[in-house]
Design a protein that fits this description.
The protein has 342 residues and is an alpha+beta fold.
Length: 342
């Protein structure tokens, strides 16, 4: 389907390039170089088609470069400039080849034709740049929709709901006062989820309060098995943001992949390093070896970690890091400043 669409676009742009070339040529140079029959017209069309194909291929390959995957004005201007220069070079190469195949004693003919194709190359550059920009907007919109769907699936984990209700049922009979506290925390957890379901960002304070309630629910289900330490993360000078449920995804993965046995404790440490939030936890040796095998650490952590990575990429924010060895697993998430969270 994509190949068919690309072929149709090529034919359309080739015809428009040929039409523009003939119109400009007849307007400016018809008196010096009159029409010499349909054979010349066919040659000109083939010439324009090959030039258009080369220009489209160059623009496509350039657009796939990682540097131009971020949608910023400066990078789009640079993309346009590089594409224009490459199109000028292509026009020169094609004109040299044409002059070699059909040599002309008049050097002016060469430069006249090259000038025509430079004009056409400029227009093709504008078309390709606009096409690249539109495709990036469409692609990012599709990616955002996909990420949102993945996030919705992970936000309301049926296992978490089942385990929470099961633990609540036991607490009602064993410890009614603790069950009351459990219900309050559980309601705060789901209030947070519903509040930020449609939001792009949440404050760091909200994220910390949520993760405290979330881990408290897990500690009731796993008494003495989870030790959470949260350092001072804000200095009060500015409001900082994270993506909603980003901390929850990391903590949930830590519990899921390092489920503490009878004599084990899962230590989770949340701290700040410069402009990043660090989530670090101890790991089981066997699980860490599985995660490190063949460099597939992201696959072991499923959708959650990859969703976060892609979300930062879409925001144009660098610095998302994942490190691990046989004793710990660590994720560093860049904090989002107010200007990025408007």
């Amino acid at each position: 389907m994509k190949l068919k669409r690309a072929f149709q676009d090529w034919l359309l742009f080739s015809f428009l390039t040929f039409l523009l070339y003939e119109v400009l040529w007849r307007i400016f140079y018809f008196y010096f170089f009159p029409f010499n029959g349909w054979g010349e017209a066919c040659y000109d069309f083939l010439y324009c088609a090959l030039f258009t194909l080369s220009s489209m291929v160059i623009s496509h390959l350039l657009g796939k470069a990682r540097f131009f995957s971020r949608l910023t004005p400066l990078r789009q201007m640079l993309f346009c400039f590089i594409t224009l220069c490459l199109n000028f070079c292509i026009a020169l190469v094609f004109q040299k080849a044409s002059d070699f195949i059909f040599p002309s004693p008049d050097s002016d003919l060469f430069w006249h034709a090259y000038y025509m194709f430079c004009v056409i190359a400029t227009l093709l550059t504008l078309v390709n740049t606009t096409y690249h920009y539109c495709m990036m907007v469409i692609r990012q919109k599709d990616q955002l929709t996909t990420l949102q769907k993945k996030a919705l699936k992970s936000q309301l984990d049926p296992h978490f709901i089942f385990n929470s209700l099961s633990a609540l049922t036991e607490l009602i009979h064993q410890n009614p006062r603790q069950a009351e506290d459990y219900v309050v925390r559980l309601s705060r957890v789901y209030r947070y989820i519903l509040s930020f379901l449609e939001e792009d960002y949440c404050t760091l304070n909200d994220s910390v309060r949520f993760i405290q309630d979330y881990v408290a629910l897990q500690e009731i289900r796993l008494p003495g098995k989870i030790a959470l330490q949260i350092d001072t993360l804000e200095d009060g000078t500015e409001q900082l943001y994270l993506f909603p449920l980003s901390l929850q995804l990391l903590v949930e993965n830590a519990i899921k992949h390092n489920f503490p046995e009878e004599d084990e404790v899962l230590y989770i440490h949340i701290l700040r390093e410069a402009d990043k939030i660090v989530v670090r936890n101890n790991t089981k040796v066997i699980d860490t070896q599985v995660m490190l095998k063949n460099g597939q650490i992201e696959d072991s952590f499923g959708i959650g970690l990859e969703t976060l990575r892609q979300r930062y990429q879409m925001e144009g924010v660098t610095g998302f890091e994942v490190t691990s060895d046989v004793s710990y697993f660590e994720v560093k998430m860049p904090l989002l400043k107010p200007s990025a969270a408007v």
